[in-house]
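Quick one, T. Sequence first:
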Amino acid sequence: MSSLLPARSVAVAEALAAAGVTGEILVLPDSARTAAEAAAALGCEVGAIANSLVFTCDGEPLLVMTSGAHRVDTAHLAAELGAGRITRASADQVREATGQAIGGVAPTRHPAPLRTVVDTALRQYEVLWAAAGHPHTVVPMTYQELLRVTGGAATAVVPPSEPSAAADG
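Structure tokens:
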């Protein structure tokens, strides 16, 4: 583990290693706060970026690991989960739920377990890239590793007929 990693990324690396994820965290020279920035820096498809988005669902935080290729359809997701309204969490709510800042939220190493869903659209990629606790750090993993690390439920976050739209990260 590199001593050059930010402290939050060191904690994420430890949690990933404990979960058996073998990919090493990379420190990018520029911010990877959005899926487009991360994909450009990594030279991969934007869809292979596993965005960590925090929402509020029935009054509780919900982590959605979604493909960077589209936006989460909150009405569709609420129906999939049998939940009430799902809304985007504020920056303060994100930090409170995850201990991390928007743009760097890792799929793991949060203060308490978070209800998590993992976008089924991510299955098509051999390697996914997720934030690693800081806006300049990312980590590669497989879809199965992402499911295991998050304890998340594989869930379609957009209707099957919806064309992909540019993601906002």
